[in-house]
Amino acid sequence: MLSTVFGIVAVMASGIVAGVLFAVAISTVPALLAMPPGQYIYAHKLLGRNWDPTMPVIVLTATALDVVLAILAPNGLGALLFGVGAALLVMVAVVSHWCNVPINRQLRTLDPDRMPAEWQDPRPLWRRWHLLRSTLAALALALNASAVALS
């Protein structure tokens, strides 16, 4: 019974992560790429206010549930799927923490009304890292859903 509840919550949590990252990739990123630099900085600051405290909690919750489910899995295939799902979610967290978040922090220091002349646009790099973590999250969701379906 506990494994069933954990499995449902793991799929929900990894689904939220994959869904949010997918939505950002297909809607938010193209909109931000189309903006002039100052407007982009202003929008980025507004959009990023609530992600940092929320998304890490959801990613780490899904990861922890996957680890528990890999241990509790009744068969080797379920353990493998949940284990790889957990590893993929760890990679989502690593890409976020080491690649996207440093760019976000740098952008928060900028005044959108006084952009430096030598400003280097980080949007293409941020987008590449974001697409990587989006792909990892989608794969984790697929593995979690498969593991729950096979349990």
How are the SSEs ordered, and which strands pair?
Layout lengths: L1 H32 L3 H12 L2 H22 L3 H33 L14 H28 L1
Describe the overall structure:
This protein has five helices and no strands. The N and C termini lie close together (12 Å). 84% of the residues lie in helices and 0% in strands. The chain is mainly alpha-helical and 151 residues long. The chain is elongated, with a radius of gyration of 18 Å. It has one domain.
Mean pLDDT: 96
Note the beta-strand portion. under 5%
SSE succession: HHHHH
How many helices? The count is 5
The number of distinct β-strands equals 0
**Radius of gyration based on Cα positions:** 18 Å
Characterize the overall form.
elongated
The number of domains: 1
Helix content: over 70%
List low-pLDDT spans.
none
Helix/strand/pairing category: mainly alpha
What about the largest sheet? none
N-to-C terminal Cα separation, in Å?
Answer: 12 Å
Keywords: Membrane, Transmembrane, Transmembrane helix
InterPro entries: Anthrone_oxy
Pfam families: Anthrone_oxy (PF08592)
Transmembrane segments: 6-33, 79-99
Summed up:
By secondary structure, this protein is mainly alpha-helical. Helix content is 84%, strand content 0%. Keywords: Membrane, Transmembrane, Transmembrane helix.
What labels would you give this structure?
mainly alpha, 151 residues
